[in-house]
Amino acid sequence: MEADVTLTVDxxxxxxxxxxxxxxxxxxxxHLGVIAPKKGCDHGQCGSCTVLLDGRRATSCLTxxxxxxxxxVRTADGLADDGELHPVQQAFIDNDAFQCGYCTPGQVxxxxxxxxxxEAGWPSAVTADPADTPRLDEAEIRExxxxxxxRCGAYAGIVAAVRGAAEGDAR
Amino acid sequence: MTDTTTHLGADSARVEGPAKVTGxxxxxxxxxxxxxxxxxxxxxxxxxxxxxxxxxxEAEAVPGVLGVLWHGNAPRLEEAEPDGLSLAAELxxxxxxxxxxxxxxxxxxxxxxxxxxxxxxxLLRTDIDRSPHDAAFFRDRDDFYTPxxxxxxxGDPDAQIAGAHAVVDEVYGTAMQHNxxxxxxxxxxxxxxxxxxxxxxxxxPHVVRETLAPMVGLEPDQVxxxxxxxxxxxxxxxxxxxxxxxxxxxxRAFPGRPMKLLLPRQRMFDQVGYRSPxxxxxxxxxxxxxxxxxxxxxxxxxxxxxxxxxETAAAPARMMYAAPHxxxxxxxxxxxxxxxxxxxxxxxxxxxxxxxxAMDELACTLGIDPIELRVRNEPDRxxxxxxxxxxxxxxxxxxxxxxxxxxxxxxxxxxxxxxGEWLVGAGVASSTYPAMLMxxxxxxxxxxxxxxxxxxxGAADIGTGAETALGLIAAEALEVPADRVRMRIGDTExxxxxxxxxxxxxxxxxxAITAAAQEFRKRHGSAPGTGAEATGDAxxxxxxxxxxxxxxxxxxxxxxxxxxxxxxxxPRLLGVWAVGRVISARTAHSQFLGGMxxxxxxxxxxxxxxxxxxxxxxxxxxxxxxxxxxxxxxxxQAHWIDEHDPYVxxxxxxxxxxxxxxxxxxxxxxxAHHATGVRVRDLPLTPDRFV
Lengths: 171, 691
Hints:
The complex is a heterodimer of chains A (171) and B (691). Chain A has 171 residues and is of the alpha+beta class. Chain A is built from 6 helices and 5 strands, in the order E-E-H-E-E-E-H-H-H-H-H. Chain A folds into 2 domains: 2-79, Beta-grasp domain (Ubiquitin-like (UB roll), Roll); 87-170, DNA polymerase, domain 1 (Orthogonal Bundle). Chain B has a 7-stranded mixed beta sheet with strand order 3-5-1-12-9-10-11, sandwiched between helices. In chain B, strands 16, 17, 18, 23, 24 and 27 form a 6-stranded mixed beta sheet that branches. At the A-B interface, helix 1, helix 2, helix 3, helix 4 and helix 5 of A face helix 1, helix 3 and helix 12 of B.
């Protein structure tokens, strides 16, 4: 069965006729030529396919394209603005927060989501008092970034990058 | 650093950084070729048997399905050329009715869309005549055999037990592990008029070409392999594996249509190798002063009925510490299991776990500081070969690590410290990995005009920072600023490069680049014309046979174990390394950290559980096979000492990709003992061991 779906991908309106079994991830990668979200496990276990779906981070392999008609999808590619890297992306480079790069676009999207979630006051499992505005210290960043696996083990750099980006935001 | 050179050792940002953080870097499955079709592999649901028939009628009726390949209709393959990495028998896929392990590929669906291929795969009916199988690895089996050339004997270590002041005699186990790079093994294969083109996730484009070409009746120059970005490998993408061959068979069957096969994560637990579980009996005998009189390491591993692969876990015990009497042996059992393969620091990684925990046990028995015990057993030559070391700075690493970690405060009593409900301990272990240079690489240097150069070599950068490091080496050899050099890598159109494996890449490829740059300057001088070029080949070190060359390191861990739940945390991990000259500081630092994190993952989490009744790995995805996540990591630090080794090779550098994982698990296990008094000798250190 097929359906017509319209998505706004990295600011661009895209329409496609899609198999109703097609995941958002496959719609992006196989049909729209958007390769920033990666397929690492196809089961929502690794986080490589993370995008910002209507502003919130989501594993794009766990949702069907047809269920997201009209949605706004931002990938790591779309976070860079006219060749100018997003501060989170620059922080990833500065802190060598990746090696092979396959999980990286997902990490970057997740990090942008983390900054916004903390800003909005969302607590995590390690937030001492859920009523407080969380401070993005190392423990908070590690907890909030743990949905994105990195087999190269670049976690130290990832924490430093997110922290750097968070402090940059605060200034 | 005291280097007087301009570029080597530079703290440069990874050159491909912008491509990776934006996701524009294109990996093997991401080339938008027209007419793409999708290949979905189907594995046998039994561990041993014969395929009687495949009923594909229902699958083929699915709209979009182009065909189903199985041994009855798949194109025929010739034997693979031995490449020293791949297991030729593993590559003969869809060629016979034989099922030799659970998941052994028996068919592949080819379809216009990935959804159709996957759906149709579920409709295939495989009629398999099932035979009894045996896939259980355990030490007390009576059918272990001795692999060829796997043992080494010096003196009589058993005879030292009687007169020893202290004896450690224990059995240590490491678990079956799966490499699990984040990018699944993936291939786009296209059979065209000129030959075969592969977009491949591989650690060695030229290895793929040389091994594959004769299998499909092509000359190597009719096969092009493209792999500028590879999403990790850790050994599993070194050899060729069956999924690549299946994609090629599909391409052969449907010429002119690119065939994409991105291996489902679950299939990475049966199709692309794993680290064999190891069980090692370690015996140490020593005097009251801690000086070793004997070292024995007897390792048992598993191999596969498909082809032999031996994890040489007893090897590092041959050269690590001095002792007049020593033995290292391997025994293997052939199981109805998929073939094992290379995984980061094969041999050394599992092989240093037992001996380094045993050293800690000896230190505890004798009441000697574990660092001091290691220092007292420092050999002045390689105890195995008798050769002098080109450099060996293990003691310097231990001392520097102790200083940085704050080891001086270490009180030896186990189970004596706590922080609230957490028991607190510290542990240390040594690391080593051989420094090798692989011959066979070539490079080309080309002047693009206006002082800009392009340097080509077919090497794969699997995340190691190779492109960055090689650019620095090229700039150094050409005596130009680093930004004047552009690397061209990851493509068989470039000169031959050896595999990214064995921690040999940077020095082997760098040696070829240096030779090409020197030849370039010799021929074209310092003011070359546009288009001028020269090539060069990797040369083994001049005095390579006169020395034993290894990198060394010391790892320190602080471990907290929860008194009631047994949860193990590692708030601090610190490594100090002696690896000759570090070429690219920032990417090298990440390599060490990455190895240590993978070592922590091995220590706390990783274990592929085989169900002996079915012969398959039960925890076959990333939800059940745990790898370290961000929240598992604490303060991880890597430092290196200034080591000058003029003998190891012309660059004075030792490989660094693997040594970081060696010894980590032992340091953590030793720290867990120090925290709790519980000695765990089998990995991983799951909470049940401590409650």
